[in-house]
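Re: [help] complex structure
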Amino acid sequence: MEKIIASIICAGLIALIVWWFFKKNKDVTARASKVNGVQKIEIEANGGYSPRVVMLEKGVPAQLTITRTDKSNCLKEIVFSDFGIKRTLPLDEPVEIEIDTSKAGEFNYACGMNMYFGKVVVK
Ligand SMILES: [Cu+2]
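Output below.
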């Protein structure tokens, strides 16, 4: 009897870990969706970036819409150093940023203080 109970608890724990991992993973990486030939994706800046990693298709125009909902000033600026982009994110106001997808690669972005990071992957 004890063994059965132990097995059930064990299976439950594994299910919980798997569920948590997938849930978390889903929040971290997202693929942009195409609207009229433009890849679009929304990113929320709140204690970090969500999704943190954005997958883009090479050669298709891309636009990120970033909204800062975090009242702290840490995420006030966003910097895409590879693209020479530095933008201010006003609180609760969506800011559109065009990303050059002509070259494949992984391009990091960060808050103005280099504390929070995200990544754009062009494939
Ligand atoms: Cu910061």
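The radius of gyration is 19 Å.
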